[in-house]
């Protein structure tokens, strides 16, 4: 049932008038900004500082993906270099999250690898880390190849794994010994049945199996990315005997009451803060992956307040 809802919602968000509603109207943009810190690095820094003051660490994501020319890919690299410098200058407890297709993956893989190298170098100079987001399954293998090469060289990277993909247990066994932080998420892309679990129960079960396996890896730093209270509770339970660091990760603007309760309970929590003008694809995935978000948007858009 959820897979059908995701497919329908993603189809609706591709309609021209729906995109216009969110990107060109004041009400639509106001609603979107619950989930996005703003369009500028300055706005992202303000949001990050507030999170730090509330006891949360942060991962900053300058939104964008699937670039179509080298100039845009190079600009994305430079934007992230500036973000790293700003994190250090402001003394923020933060790292960055990047998408390789934003750096040119699929357009010019050599350029993408060079840009990843530049970001890893700058982050190392500043004692910061870089997390590589996982994108559609067509990019999984090359993403892990690039991560492995860079992590072996620099040792300050992390990567996301999607529990819905059937291949992920093998991927986890491959990369866990590299010593990076591994963000385990359910996955927000509409993937075919032959390569991904689609039923909610199957995805939840896969997530829990991977969570347990990840917590048993002494060299990796698990980052359990979920807003599902049951998944988070499971992670806290299996982490009870873990001496090495781990953390929970949640998205900016979602389940803020749960954020507070986790922090009050002494659990390490990092907030993933997206910003930038290319926020619409990100927003559509957030709507599709959790029906409650859809009802929030509907209420906000048609509210008279």
Q: Topology of this protein?
A:
Elements: H1 2-13, H2 16-24, H3 26-32, H4 41-53, E1 57-62, H5 70-90, E2 94-98, H6 109-125, E3 130-132, H7 140-154, E4 157-162, H8 168-175, E5 181-185, H9 200-215, E6 221-225, H10 229-238, E7 247-251, H11 256-264, E8 269-275, H12 280-289, H13 291-302
Parallel strand pairs: 1-2, 1-8, 2-3, 3-4, 4-5, 5-6, 6-7, 7-8
Helix pairs in contact: 1-12, 2-3, 5-6, 9-10, 12-13
Global outline: globular
User: Order of strands across the biggest sheet?
Assistant: 1-2-3-4-5-6-7-8
| String of helices and strands | HHHHEHEHEHEHEHEHEHEHH
Strand fraction equals 5-15%
Question: Number of helical runs?
Answer: 13
**Uncertain spans:** none
Biggest sheet record: 8 strands, parallel, barrel
CATH C-level name of the largest domain = Alpha Beta
State mean pLDDT (0 to 100 scale): 89
Distance between the amino and carboxyl termini: 33 Å
CATH architecture type of the largest domain: Alpha-Beta Barrel
Helix content range: 40-55%
Spatial extent as radius of gyration: 18 Å
């Amino acid at each position: 049932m959820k897979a059908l809802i995701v497919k329908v919602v993603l189809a609706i968000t591709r309609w021209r008038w729906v995109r216009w509603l969110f990107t060109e109207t004041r009400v639509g943009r106001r609603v979107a900004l619950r989930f996005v810190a703003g369009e500028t690095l300055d706005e992202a820094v303000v949001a990050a500082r507030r999170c730090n003051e509330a006891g949360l660490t942060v991962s900053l994501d300058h939104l964008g993906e699937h670039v179509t020319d080298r100039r845009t890919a190079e600009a994305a690299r430079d934007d992230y270099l500036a973000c790293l410098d700003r994190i250090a200058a402001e003394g923020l407890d933060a790292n960055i999250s990047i998408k390789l297709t934003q750096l040119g993956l699929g357009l010019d893989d050599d350029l993408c690898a060079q840009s990843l190298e530049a970001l890893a170098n700058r982050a190392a100079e500043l004692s910061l880390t870089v997390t590589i987001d996982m994108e559609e399954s067509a990019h999984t293998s090359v993403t892990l190849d690039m991560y492995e090469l860079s992590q072996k060289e620099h040792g300050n990277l992390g990567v996301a794994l999607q529990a819905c993909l059937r291949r992920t247990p093998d991927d986890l066994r491959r990369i866990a010994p590299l010593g990076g932080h591994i963000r385990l998420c359910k996955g927000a892309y509409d993937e075919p049945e032959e390569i991904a679990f689609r039923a909610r129960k199957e995805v939840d079960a896969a997530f829990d199996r991977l969570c347990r396996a990840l917590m048993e890896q002494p060299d990796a730093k698990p980052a359990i990315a979920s807003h599902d209270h049951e998944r988070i509770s499971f992670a806290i339970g299996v982490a009870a005997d873990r001496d090495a660091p781990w953390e929970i990760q949640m998205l900016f603007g979602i389940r803020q009451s749960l954020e507070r309760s986790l922090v009050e309970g002494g659990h390490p929590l990092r907030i993933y803060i997206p910003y930038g003008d290319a926020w619409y694809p990100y927003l559509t995935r957030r709507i599709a992956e959790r029906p409650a978000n859809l009802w929030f948007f509907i209420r906000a858009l048609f509210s008279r307040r």
